[in-house]
Amino acid sequence: MSRYRLEYAINEKIRFLSHRELMTSLQRSLRRASFPFAYSHGFNQRPKFSFGPPLGVGIAGLREYLDVELVEEIAQEEYLQRLQQQLPLGIEAHRLVLVPPGDAGLGKFINCACYQVLVPDSLGISWDKLLQDLEEGDPWWYERPNDGKVFNMSAGIIKSRFQQDEGDLYLEFLLKIGPGEVPVRGLLDVLSSKANAASLPPFRTTRTGLYRQENNCFISPMGEIEVIFEG
Amino acid sequence: MNLEQVLFEKILPRVGRAARYLGTEWNSVHKDWDAVPVRMAFAFPDLYEVGMSHLGLQILYSLANDREDFLMERVFAPAADMEQELRGAGLPLFSLESHHSLKDFDVIGFTLQYELSFTNIMNMLDLAGIPLRSENRSDNHPLIIAGGPVAFNPEPLAPFIDAFVIGEGDECILEILEAVGEVKGNCPRASRSDLMERLVEIPGIYIPSYYRPEYTGDGRIKEIVPLHPKAPERVQRRVISDLDAAYYPLSPLVPLAEAVHERGMLEVFRGCTRGCRFCQAGMIYRPVRERSPEVLLSQARDIIKNTGFEEVSLVSLSSLDYSCLDRLLPPLSEECRATRTGLSLPSLRVDSFSVETAKGLPGRRTSVTFAPEAGTQRLRDVINKGVTEDDLMDAVGAALEAGWSAIKLYFMVGLPTEEREDLEGIAELVEKVENIGKRYKRGRKRPRVTVSAANFVPKAHTPFQWEGQNSREVLKEKHEFLRPLIKKSRAEYNWHNIEVSFLEACFARGDRRLADVLEGAFLRGCRFDGWTEYFRFPLWMESFQAAGLDPVSYAEKKFSYDEVLPWDIIDSGVSRDFLIREHKQALDGALTQDCRTADCGNCGICTSLGVVPQLVKERK
Questions:
Q1: Percent of chain A having pLDDT more than 90?
Q2: What is the CATH number of the domain that holds B61?
Q3: In CATH, what number is assigned to the domain containing residue A144?
Q4: What are phi and psi of B591, to 5 degrees?
Q5: DSSP label at A37?
Q6: Four-residue CA torsion sign, B611, B614, B618, B620
Q7: Scanning every residue of chain A, which has its alpha carbon at the shortest distance from the alpha carbon of B21?
Q8: Is B291 helix (H, G, I), strand (E, B) or coil?
């Protein structure tokens, strides 16, 4: 058995897929590309997949990950190309690597995610002040509509900042994944309400990366150490 | 911002299951809009997840798009939240592939699968900014066509549809689009009157505005008067004679949003001549035309390769009647095992052979469905079901033995001649099935038995077309009588909404006057009437009242043999004499054999349509 990790992107056109729909689409793409899946045993045998943390509906993802177990080693470049030809419009496969033995898996490895939220420039809001309030002021509470669960949004944020780039204004958040995780949809709702932006179109949001934070070091699921939230 | 930008930036973030509206499914076709002369939208008047499971869509979509000069895009009924967003933003309903307004197409073709989708058609036209009634449309509007099984009684929709396609759309869709191309020429739009003149020359096309029904003083139809010299006396249905030679999509669309059925479909045959007397499909899709196993196997390989579906299914009206299962299933099962693809049959015939066959197929085994339809042998003979109690018990025993752990049983309530004993017979059958189940306990868990009882709805072009539906009160009494009896045997009892079945009966055999009711119901807010959560019966009753029509007289009406029927303009190929004979046989409880295994029953189809049954393996 060999485990491979795929890095892929979900672009603007397909960001409205649910996690389940995305999983099905990717699985079918891999089937069309003839990946030699390893299957679970038992009554309902399924290919062995493991996905990174779900991406919220409506959010694009620049670097998303999935692990797939195969019955044999494959020529990575060849299979990556095959897969690229079989992906629906809006999903792009970037890299495919063999996962070394002993790897903890995506679920255990990833503990934070970086999000970029494009904000309108017409609000006249001091975003820096708002973010400072979010991180240092009283907790921002959010009640999830579907189950009534209440989150302290401030506690789920590791870092945040306001950026301007070629006329675009955006907020960046480094959010916890796993214990203490807060819903991104909730963060956007709370932000909208704090900015009195209820009548504005929904913020366009992109997850720009998934990482393991160890001390001040950020490691991507592909094993690269990256510098984020600087410059 | 153009429509697509508004959709992605402002609307999709706010609606549920937005993947329904993306249009970027695998195998979807995106053509250069300006480079294609004839553009059609295939409109499915229900949600994406229902429409994407429909084989007809897959066939017509690929068939039209294979032609360079045609473009076909899809549109489904928008869910309530999307409708609200579109209306709120003043945006038109759009096609999925190019996100063009429906109004921009040359042709919009609705598929009519169910009477209770009619208000969705109204809603889709209205959202597109297209006048509901044909008479109010101009050359600036698309041609509105409709086809599918419900088009076999087109009259309630007649004022809204420019032309109906009667019969198999894959036989004539290209002819229709060619005609549109011819008439359109280099103009931005085809002249409507010229187009109608051209379309009426195509066999199988019914143009309702070319006819006027006249009524007697007591509200019955006196005659249907042709108003145009080219209008045929009766419109004969189109039929494909050779399925092996017919077009079949080998790269069908793969849904993005989860659909009701997500599987590759192998159409093993069309038509069914078992002759169940309540079944419209069994009459209007005759004769049986089978595909050869070699063609099916090759199609299966391509579909698995081109879609990545985890399952393929043998679809037809009764796939276990396929004459060549012994030649198809071994290599197909092998192919499926090799590609880790499940192989399924949508429903099983009520006999142990079918169970034996199904248990050998690769894939999961959860529940198995049998449809004895009636509780006593007498009533099963009336409906020509041709199934005995022993058949059912053998099938159930074989299914449980083979590892299925849930049995679903389908029955119909309110069938012609039904008596109390027939209902008691349903309960007795269910109890016997439960008793067999006790022998197959897993630990303390017994196999689950679910009984689903539909209300009989008389359908046009069947031997029961002259029969009326039981009143709502009687149907209610029958379900209330049956439910405790079924519960006693611990089976679960589900029954269809009586008011929904009542409306279905009104429209299944209704006439052109019902169009006012439809329009009224739409204007009052009716949508998705087949969905219990959206169904608003009082609004329908208000609409009947406003139109001055009595729904009871439609649903419960018994027609006499010599009466003009609203759908007489449509010739399914099955003769009226045959239907009368079958109706009389039903009342006598006499069976009619399947012409695949017995002598010809003289239904008239072969002589009138010039086709013959095509069985791969002659079984007589």
A1: 62
A2: 3.40.50.2300
A3: 3.30.70
A4: -90, 150
A5: B
A6: negative
A7: A16
A8: coil
